[in-house]
Amino acid sequence: MEQNEQNLSHKERQETKREEKINKQMEEKNKKKMQSAILWTVITVFVVGTIGAMIALASKKSGPQFAGGTVKPADASDWVKGATLAEAKVVLTEYSDFQCPACGAYYPMVKQLGKEFKNLAIVYRHFPLPQHDNARPAAQAAEAAGKQGKFWEMHDMLFENQKFWSVSPNPEEAFNIYAEKLGLDMEKFKTDFKSATAKTKITSDYQSGANEVDGTPSFFLNNQKIQNPKTYEEFRTIIQQAGGAL
Predict the structure, then answer these.
(1) Which of 33, 90, 177, 222 is the least crowded, having the fewest Cβ atoms under 10 Å away?
(2) Which of 143, 198, 211 is nearest to 175 (CA)?
(3) CA nearest 175: which of 186, 204, 75?
(4) For residue range 1-14, what is the model confidence (pLDDT) as tens digits?
(5) Residues 102, 108, 113, CA angle at the centre, nearest 5°?
(6) First and final CA of the chain: distance in angstroms?
(7) Which residues pair with 43 in a beta bridge?
(8) Dihedral sign (CA 231, 233, 238, 239)
(9) Tens of pLDDT along 203-229?
(10) Is 14 helix (H, G, I), strand (E, B) or coil?
């Protein structure tokens, strides 16, 4: 009887040790699980925080991103549409080339901005690039039309038909057709097209932006250069944040 109790006690001790070993293993596993859970929690918090910060930063960057210096303020010598310079809260100045495909792509955006915003003045300045043979003659056509109060009408016609006249060996033929469609005095148009006044205006526009314009189109918000918006909504937001009223 006493021997059986000793044997039983020995088994119990073995069982106890085995249970202790299992419990220790379980504790180690649980500890590792807890450490892993804490690690992933920290990582999750960090990632969420980083994303939140990026979203907040992106939100702040939705306004104009200034990308250079300034150009001379618009004045009576400029072509302006929309609000008058005296009444405008926001002035958007575009340096553009009528033959430039990118300018053609931005043309409908700028036109729509002019329709949407009541206190936005849009200023167009010529910046014909030397690699575009027909850009300067197109600018002369717009200036000649402007002498008869039709600058913006010719401006629109040139962009809307860019793919035709831009590849023409004799773009003046197309410009004359556009002038006739606009009901212009053709003799005056042809004279103004070749005039020193038109050529001087184009050169003056070009020189006013030469230090800041490195490509077309280039946009200046209240005379300060901005990065070109990628979408119309981005452009619209920039104008709104600058004080544009719908």
Answers:
(1) 33
(2) 143
(3) 186
(4) 444 445 556 666 66
(5) 120
(6) 103
(7) none
(8) positive
(9) 999 999 999 999 999 999 999 999 999
(10) helix
**195, 116 Cβ separation under 8 angstroms:** no
Q: How many CB atoms lie within 10 A of CB 149?
A: 10
Instruction: Using DSSP bridges, classify how beta strands 120-126 and 224-226 pair: parallel, antiparallel or unpaired.
Output: unpaired
Q: Checking DSSP bridges between strand 120-126 and strand 90-96, what pairing results, if any?
A: parallel
Residue 76 structure tokens: 């009576």
Amino acid at 93: T
What pTM was estimated for this model as a whole?
Answer: 0.75
Question: What are the contacts of 59-66 at 24+ separation with CB within 8 A?
Answer: 62/234, 62/237, 62/238, 62/241, 63/237, 63/238, 63/241, 63/242, 64/221, 64/226, 64/227, 64/238, 64/241, 64/242, 65/226, 65/227, 66/221, 66/224, 66/225, 66/226, 66/227
> Would you call 96 helix, strand, or coil by DSSP?
strand
